[in-house]
Design a protein that fits this description.
Blueprint lengths: L5 H14 L8 H17 L4 H16 L5 H10 L2
Length: about 80
């Protein structure tokens, strides 16, 4: 972890928490949470901390807009809270 990239570190932690919630069954919710996991990991590796913050703001908007299934939304919200 890089101490001065606070938002990047948050994205990494959220991704790790989200990864822990996966079940072995293939489903739409699982695919959506895996996609968000990948996006969080990508955001955690950016060189500009503000990009990670912008991704989290965008993810919050997507959750509010109902882009994900109810189960995926619940798992993602739990991971980022």
């Amino acid at each position: 972890m890089i101490p001065d990239l606070w938002w990047n570190n948050k994205c990494r932690r959220y991704a790790e928490k989200l990864r822990e919630t996966h079940s072995g069954r293939a489903s739409t919710s699982r695919e959506q949470t895996l996609r968000v996991y990948d996006e969080l990991m990508k955001a955690s590796k950016t060189l500009v901390d503000g990009h990670a913050h912008n991704y989290l703001v965008e993810l919050d908007r997507r959750l509010d807009d109902g882009e994900f299934t109810a189960t995926a939304t619940k798992k993602i919200r739990k991971a980022i809270s």
